[in-house]
Design brief:
Blueprint: E1 19-24, E2 30-33, E3 41-47, E4 52-56, E5 67-69, E6 74-76, E7 86-90, E8 96-102
Antiparallel strand pairs: 1-8, 2-7, 3-6, 3-8, 4-5, 4-7
């Protein structure tokens, strides 16, 4: 017996294309995502062979961070979502961060 599809309720869901960005690796702190009160979720892919240190806030260092992404790691933001500035710093200036932000 086939399953019935879920009903479509007009006006309940809006579709907004995500924002994509590519941030070059740096050994000095950079902004990965600016503060955005409309942010629903986000994800980061460390397109590098070296570690990326991510901080929810400013002042990121290799010893003061929220999450460490080793080379080619992927990270999805937890819910509830952090909507303020997100910064990052790499252990070497190699590669970039591929970032997708859903608003």
């Amino acid at each position: 017996m086939p399953l019935d599809p879920l009903p479509i309720i007009p006006g309940i869901v809006t579709v907004v294309p995500p924002n994509f960005s590519d941030v070059a690796a740096s050994v000095t702190p950079v902004t990965l995502l600016a503060a955005n009160a409309l942010r629903k979720t986000a994800c980061i892919y460390n397109d590098s062979n070296v570690s990326l240190f991510v901080k929810f806030g400013t002042g990121v260092t290799t010893s003061n961070f929220t999450v460490r992404l080793d080379g080619h790691d992927y990270y999805e933001f937890p819910i509830p979502i952090y909507i303020d500035t997100i910064t990052g710093v790499w252990s070497a200036s190699t590669g970039s961060a591929k970032i997708t932000e859903f608003v």
